[in-house]
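FORM 7B: Structural annotation worksheet

SECTION A. Query
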Amino acid sequence: VLKETEIIKWCRKAIEDYVFEPTTVTIKLLGEDHNSLITWNLTHVWPKKWDIADLDAYKNEILVETLEMNYNFFTVKYES
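SECTION B. Predicted structure
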């Protein structure tokens, strides 16, 4: 059972209710030591598509969830 996290609430509000609340999003790629390697900062972001792959209880597979977002602008920072 998924928890009703803030990101899930934000997506549902946009996709199900057509209430769009653009926000700022930060995405970090972490290395094995959990330190940031690359950081993407996106501005004026809103969800476009939210997809959850089919789940087969008889297969030993991971479940893939995809969130597609629109944005107005982004920056990338490469950590040294």
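SECTION C. Observations
Helices lie at 6-15. The radius of gyration is 15 Å.

SECTION D. Sign-off
Analyst initials: ____
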